[in-house]
Amino acid sequence: MHHAPQKMARRLVTGAQYVAQLARRESDVRARAAFRGLVLRIAEPGARLFDFGCGPGMDARFYAERGFEVHAYDVDPEQCDYFTSECHDLIEAGRVTLERGGYDDFLARHRSGRVDLVTANFAPLNLIEDLHELFAAFHEFTAPGGRVLASVLSPYFVGDLRYPWWWRNLKALKRSGHFSVPGAQAPICRRRVADFAAQSVPYFALENVFPGLPERRVREADGLRLGGGTRRAWLRLAACRFMFLLFTRRQTSVSRQRVCGASSVSSRNEACPRANEARR
């Protein structure tokens, strides 16, 4: 997929401004609470987590304070600076570690140990044009049976229907399963659930889909049965800006092959994990 140069959609907000912006938006506060609650249900006590696109460290601190071992990564220098300030005591205690650097460096880095759960809150995966290589990296450092829980922007969100860009891209969404619009950090790629599932193969399998807000009914805690195409499931997703996708690691003999600079990941220009600007 090729993107022509486009004017940035909005100014990039990082660090303390980003934290303040999240706190002002009630829907963001509720979405973060729902994602954290799902992490606590999925992860075993004391599990090793990897917070991809960790931003200012709010989630990393939350996880570490609840007994998890947290490793984190973000590409944005200002976010990383805020992270080290936010989590300085936990970093000094060895309960949190932070990786910095460009996206190419992240993909090339070999990590010791095995991660039980990769978390990606507030849509960092929507800033990556080709997710296949990223899932390959996740597969390399996750344990057998490991999982990825990602908060992603829903292309079905009814709140976006008021924007001309949604209607302009509707045909592309139906035809190819995804479309991109300009963003402050990178093009923002919205994908159908099936497209995310295809991008994760052969390294992961999509296990479940959850609405990106706290469950209103007990049965919603088990996720949505999208395979059956039930109207209620799709309506629940349409009511949420985010949807939470849970992937399970596959046992595969496929080798991870990467030629530096040859991938179609949009983040080659240092634009990747952190998606406060991915919300339009």
Which features would summarize this protein structure in a list?
280 residues; alpha/beta; Rossmann fold; seven-stranded mixed beta sheet; two-stranded antiparallel ribbon; 9 strands; 33% helix
Explain what the structure shows.
- This protein is an alpha/beta fold.
- It has a domain at 18-48 and 123-269: 3-Layer(aba) Sandwich (Rossmann fold), CATH 3.40.50.
- Helices cover 33% and strands 20% of the residues.
- It has eleven helices and nine strands.
- It has helices spanning 15-24, 26-42, 58-64, 77-86, 88-92, 103-108, 132-141, 164-168, 170-176, 193-200, 231-238; strands at residues 48-52, 69-73, 96-99, 115-120, 142-153, 178-181, 188-191, 204-211, 242-249.
- The strands form two sheets. A seven-stranded mixed sheet has the order 3-2-1-4-5-9-8, sandwiched between helices. The protein has a two-stranded antiparallel sheet with strand order 6-7.
- Helix 7 (132-141) links the parallel strand 4 and strand 5.
- The longest helix has 17 residues, at 26-42.
- The two termini are 21 Å apart.
- Residues 1-10 and 258-280 have low confidence and may be disordered.
In short:
The chain is of the alpha/beta class. The chain has eleven helices and nine strands. Helix content is 33%, strand content 20%.
Q: List the strand order in the largest sheet.
A: 3-2-1-4-5-9-8
Architecture of the domain at 18-48 and 123-269 in CATH? 3-Layer(aba) Sandwich
- In terms of DSSP E residues, the strand content is 15-25%
Helix-strand category: alpha/beta
